[in-house]
Amino acid sequence: MILYSWNVNGLRAIAKKPGFMDFFNRPDVDLLGLQEIRATPDQLSPELAEPPGRLAYFVNHKAKGGYSGVAVYSRGKPLKVVRELPDPKFAQEGRLVHLELAKFHFLSVYFPNGQKDEERLRYKLGYYEAFLTYCQKIRQTKPVVACGDFNAAHRPLDLAEPEANEGVSGFLPEERAFLDRLIAAGYVDVFRALNGDLAGQYSWWSYRSGDRRRNVGWRIDYFFASEELRPNLARAWLEPTTVGSDHCPVGLELSF
Predict the structure, then answer these.
(1) Burial grade of 220 (CB within 10 A; 0-12, 13-18, 19 or more)
(2) Distance, CA of 192 to CA of 171 (rounded, Å)
(3) How confident is the model at residue 209 (pLDDT cuts 50, 70, 90)?
(4) Is 126 helix (H, G, I), strand (E, B) or coil?
């Protein structure tokens, strides 16, 4: 199985850019999780809202149009679809689509950004905790694969300028500690597990002039798989040359 995750920073906008529809229509992709789609299905073209040969599942912010939103495209029919975390506090912003499949649970998640203020950072940290609790609950029935924009770099290796960003949300000790706890709970950072400690491997770059060209970025987009799936992890990669968003796609191949 081939799985992809991509924060597209606006699905309607990226769909107009060269190359996106070629990526979107790749015939070998079994599951595609998109984050920050910023559009409801009725605002999308038929090719994006109901693509031939695939099933599409969306969740959107309940109050703010053009904000957040997640989509999952699947070539097979899931056993069950869940939108948002069960805690009402974290079920308003269009941040999670969960497909239960035959062999595993698949979650596409867009985690909150904590840079606005302290209140928003607390919300982000609370979302992290609610997410891990939810994963541990559904993991009791079958393994979990979670992908998306986690809005946090884990280790200094995962961003180009760690010293300059030690006090910035996205690389705060408490955010990094959550990723530590996620791994301690039995979830594998698939890219690192399969590729080792590679330098210069990023999935997001600021729109500031030249940051992407100079590869001044952060790795904040992940696939995490529960430990039970480690024997099935075949390949993991980033696609920094696939453009259209300030993020790039991240991929995972599972072998069963």
Answers:
(1) buried
(2) 18
(3) confident
(4) helix
Q: Are strands 105-110 and 144-149 parallel, antiparallel or unpaired?
A: parallel
Q: Which amino acid is at 25?
A: N
First-last CA distance in the chain:
8
Residue 166 CB burial class (10 angstroms; 0-12, 13-18, ≥19): exposed
Predicted confidence band of residue 17 (pLDDT cuts 50, 70, 90): very high
149 an active-site residue? yes
On whether the pTM is more than 0.90, the answer is yes
In angstroms, rounded to a whole number, what is the distance separating the alpha carbons of residues 166 and 108? Answer: 27
Domains and CATH numbers, the chain: 2-254 (3.60.10.10)
Q: How far apart are CA 139 and CA 178, in angstroms?
A: 18
- Find where tokens 């985690």 sit: 111
Asked if residues 59 and 70 have their Cβ atoms less than 8 Å apart, the reply is yes
Please give the helix or strand (H or E) that residue 253 lies within, else none. strand 250-254
Neighbouring-strand partners of residue 204? 218, 247
What span, in angstroms and rounded, lies between the C-alpha atoms of 44 and 213?
A: 31
164 secondary structure, DSSP code: G
92-110 pLDDT, tens digit per residue, is 999 999 999 999 999 999 9
The 10 Å CB-count burial string (b at 16+, else e) for 90-109 is bbebbbbbbbbbeebbbbbb
Q: For residue 106, what are the β-bridge partners? A: 99, 145
Active-site hit among 149, 158, 189, 221: 149
Residue 217 corresponds to which amino acid?
Answer: G
Strand partners, 154: none
Q: Which two tokens stand for residue 38?
A: 């910023």
Q: Are 137 and 100 in contact (CB under 8 A)?
A: no
